[in-house]
Amino acid sequence: MNLFTRISATLTGKLDDMVAHVENHDAVVAVALKDTRTAVAKAKVRLDRVRKDGEAMRNRLEDAERTEKLWEYRAKETAKQDEQKALACIARRNQCRDQIKQLQSALTRHEELETKVGENVQRMEQRLRDITQQQNLMRSRQSTADAMRIISKIEGSTDNGIEDTFDRWEMLITETEYSTGHTSDTDSLDMSFVKEENTMQLQVELAELLDDKKGD
Question: Hey, where are the domains in the chain?
Answer without folding.
Answer: 19-185, 186-216
